[in-house]
Recover the amino acids of this structure.
DNA sequence: TGAATTTTGTGATTTTTGACGCAGGTTTGT
DNA sequence: ACAAACCTGCGTCAAAAATCACAAAATTCA
């Protein structure tokens, strides 16, 4: 919980009252490795803040899992599309390691928005962070070759490969496991 | 202007007062074909609502233009990263046809947020629309083959190819001009 | 309108990446 | 501790796409 509080404070002003109002929307939860935060087909009613651990979001394409993102400590994850329109989620969010997360309840949060301008600002900020992350990843597909994409990932996230297997990383980068293996071999 | 008002009303509640407050943030502008909305290196201080026409956003990679998105009627465009952090924009937004746009001033909007909860909700909504659009395009790179990507585009946006040249479309889809030309030939 | 520029179509060639199979190593769970 | 599942590396092969080259068509603009 304190993790989240500190994190918010580093980004935007939040008074004690603001925090108190926000607190009503929050629950802390522990997820075991491979436990599911959001099922496929489920309506997403929460935003998750990863306090510790890693989560993974992925599509299930007839048995094949295609990773769309990894969320490490101090990152927010949710399915915006499902969250805002109350539609069924097309993808899954799962704990990739044992994960501690703060669950932000959507309905309580919408109420809190009405009570506090600061919280509404916080809500916008979370969205902005999600957009920025996505924009970056999305851009990398057009601007960079697969190999450059891989290099960019390791230079920005040196611990990524320590925590995420080659196979999973390949799926995230949109290339085959073998191709990634070759890049890494060549690199040295 | 009325275009925007109707569009907002179709998505969220907006009282007459709310609209009045929002109006102070708005300016209508006409852009000639190829006129620039946001320069590279410039700090983005506006959100644009395209009333008519099309805009294109792209990176300039040593002379080569790489398209990241096209914005048609009733779509919002901006550079979120630059907008929120006041950093220099890494990409360019340009009118791809003669375009009529409503310019939403960032600073006035931030003020308006404080005055009206409805406007803050509107701000969140704009962000959500931008995320959803990006998420979709981004996902298409991992989930679909280039050819499927092309087919998805024409089925979702039948008029895309009428308004955007093959070369520009290819850059948007992240494939070479020649490959796209072949896909199209094969298709029908 | 007519020249210049940009866009498009197609063929030949090369490069890149994916698919498959298999063997050895590591991790997981009971 | 042991079996099962999973991950990794390496080879060959095939498929997909990029690149190059050039001609034809369309668009722009003075």
């Amino acid at each position: 919980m304190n993790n989240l509080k500190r994190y918010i404070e580093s980004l935007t002003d939040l008074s004690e009252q603001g925090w108190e109002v926000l607190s009503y929307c929050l629950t802390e939860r522990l997820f075991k490795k491979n436990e599911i935060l959001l099922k496929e087909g489920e309506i997403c009613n929460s935003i998750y803040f990863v306090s510790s651990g890693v989560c993974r979001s992925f599509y299930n394409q007839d048995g094949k899992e295609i990773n769309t993102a990894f969320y490490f400590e101090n990152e927010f994850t949710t399915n915006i599309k499902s969250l805002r329109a109350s539609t069924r989620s097309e993808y899954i969010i799962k704990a990739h390691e044992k994960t501690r997360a703060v669950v932000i309840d959507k309905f309580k949060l919408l109420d809190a928005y009405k009570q506090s301008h600061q919280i509404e600002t916080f809500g916008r900020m979370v969205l902005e962070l999600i957009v920025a992350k996505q924009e970056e990843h999305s851009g990398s597909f057009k601007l960079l070759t697969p190999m450059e994409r891989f290099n960019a990932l390791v230079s920005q996230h040196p611990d990524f490969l320590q925590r995420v297997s080659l196979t999973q990383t390949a799926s995230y980068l949109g290339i085959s496991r073998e191709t990634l293996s070759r890049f890494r071999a060549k690199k040295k």
